[in-house]
Specification:
The protein has two domains: 141 residues, 3-Layer(aba) Sandwich (Rossmann fold), CATH 3.40.50; 138 residues, Rossmann fold. 44% of the residues lie in helices and 14% in strands. It is built from twelve helices and nine strands. Helix 2 links the parallel strand 1 and strand 2. The chain is elongated.
């Protein structure tokens, strides 16, 4: 088998030949998807699974890509990087999947990318937020179709340069994406001559955020930024409302996820902004959520479609999560 490089892959995508032509229509296009379907980020993995299955069903009903059906090989990693590497390797070696898609956690992606050249495989990310994947840990066989966590953190920080808040606190999940995002936010605040008073990191799967919320309340900060996802995000938002954290300081994030709104309802996600009318915020953010929901539905389809058949126009949507003031209240 010829070695697949970034240059040849891009050329093949553009020509629509990376997966062959109608001459080998009987051969399915095989896509490996090691996903965290269980565990704290299982809700995120399930979104990715449903999106991919909907895309495959839609494309196959129209005759496939260049006449070839799409075949997905989905497996559960439980959110564990070592398991993700093993599941990805099984997809490559047992099922001959040369295209990998959909790893849920950045820590999983960081564990897989060093193996791509050895496997002669391409990995297209649609959800991994750690900036190192397209920075110091970048490899030619990796493609990112979403924005990174640091890009989202910077979007929030740009707003805050003109905001009245002076002291900030950070809360992130204790793995690659959470730490990377909070670190970027801290750096941006210091460059804006704002005071970053501290940060805490919660283990993935945290259910009780009371000690974290108490620490944040007592920090002296007048605003906080958080990088949480999945069940952890839902738990924090519900408890933040119970402890009336939003009345003590402004809560902000770049994470918007429809599963959160469905899980905790509208009210726990949004708290009053002391510098703006609540109803105005609700209208603006509700409009944004509807937009993000549409983007998320299209993202899974566009990410896969763009990879499988570039000339069909299914490019990269470029939105892992909208920059939003979520204290008023999750991608990919």
């Amino acid at each position: 088998m010829n070695k697949m490089t970034r240059r040849t892959a891009l050329a093949s995508f553009a020509a629509g030949t990376v997966f062959g032509t109608r001459a080998d229509a009987a051969n399915a296009i095989k896509i490996g998807m090691p996903l965290a379907l269980t565990g704290p980020l299982g809700s995120v993995g399930e979104q990715m699974r449903r999106g991919a299955e909907l895309w495959a069903k839609t494309v196959n009903a129209k005759g496939g890509v260049t006449g070839r059906p799409i075949q997905l090989f989905i497996s559960d990693t439980g959110g564990d990087p070592a398991t993700c590497v093993r599941k990805a390797q099984e997809a490559v070696e047992r099922e001959d999947c040369r295209l990998l898609f959909g790893m849920t956690l950045s820590s999983e992606a960081l564990a897989v990318v060093p193996k791509l050249a050895e496997w002669n495989a391409i990995f297209i990310s649609s959800d991994n937020g750690d900036g190192r994947l397209t920075g110091e840990s970048f490899v030619p066989n990796f493609f990112r179709s979403n924005i990174s966590g640091p890009m989202g953190a910077r979007a929030v920080s740009l707003y805050l340069r003109e905001a009245p808040f002076k002291k900030f606190y950070g809360l992130g999940m204790d793995y690659a994406w959470g730490r990377n995002s909070v670190a970027v936010f801290e750096g941006e605040m210091k460059r804006a001559n704002k005071e970053f008073v501290g940060a805490v990191f919660s283990p993935t799967g945290t259910k009780d955020f009371s000690t974290y919320i108490t620490k944040i309340r007592n920090s002296g900060a007048d605003a906080m930024y958080f990088a949480l996802a999945g069940d952890d995000l839902n738990a924090f938002l519900v408890q933040a409302k119970q402890y009336r954290l939003g009345e003590k300081l402004q809560i902000m994030t770049e994470v918007v996820d429809m599963t959160t709104v469905r899980a905790v309802g509208f009210d726990p996600v949004f708290v009053r902004d002391r510098y703006a009318g609540e109803q105005g915020i609700r209208r603006d953010v509700a409009k944004g959520i509807r937009h993000v929901a549409g983007q998320q539905r299209r993202r899974a389809v566009a990410g896969l479609s763009g990879a499988a058949n570039r000339d069909r126009g299914g490019g990269h949507n470029g939105s892992r999560s909208a920059a939003s003031r979520a204290g008023q209240g999750r991608d990919r």
